Amino acid sequence: MANELTWQSATDNLWAMRNEIWQAFWETLVMVGISVTTSVVFGTLLGVALFMTNKNQLAENKFLYRFLGNITNLMRAFPFVILMIVIIPATRLLVGTTIGPVAASVALGLAGLFYFARLVEQNLRDVPKGIIEAGQAMGASTWTIISKILLLEARSSLVLSITTLTISLLSYSAAAGMIGGGGLGDLAIRYGYNRYQNDVMIFMVILLVVMVIIIQSVGNLLAEKLDKR
């Protein structure tokens, strides 16, 4: 068969596309890098707020906890592709465009923010209450308890949560390609799906799998180094 896929034809085709593949890889790194940073910064703030306003915590506030919790649950339940479409006006306002990896990072960061906030809340709940009480007994301020006790004691778990977040946003970035986000997912859809080039689709899947393995391995190693237990 003239169009039969062989190892030689696949490698020749992928080599001819090397510039496009590199560009897509870079776009994926940009999307994931910006969105992970945004999610970690703002998600940590929200996660700490959720933890601190919960029952029997230092800043217990049932109304505020319920309010923040409901917003977090709502945003986590929002389908990502629909979220990207809904916030197009906000994306255009923030970055001046709705196309490209930076624009896609807005939706990715928003989705990751609320996802990571719940992970942070759970990580902080795992910190032994006796350590917090010891800090209070020594007269530590609320900020000191948060920064020097809670986040410090939970650092190993937080690293694993960041690892989980990064892998999740990497998978979301593939969906971002559907509406002009670019990246490896976009390349897989345009060539692998629309043009029936199975070699491109397979290579993109392998590349994403390798990236996931590397991210998880690095995350596990860092978490192990930071774990004092």
TrEMBL record:
Transmembrane stretches, start-end: 24-51, 63-88, 94-116, 158-180, 200-223
Domain ABC transmembrane type-1: 25-219
Gene Ontology, cellular component aspect: plasma membrane
UniProt record, GO biological process: D-methionine transmembrane transport
Bilayer topology annotation: Multi-pass membrane protein
Family to which the UniProt record says this protein belongs: Belongs to the binding-protein-dependent transport system permease family. CysTW subfamily.
Protein known as: Binding-protein-dependent transport system inner membrane protein
Taxonomic lineage: Bacteria, Pseudomonadati, Pseudomonadota, Gammaproteobacteria, Moraxellales
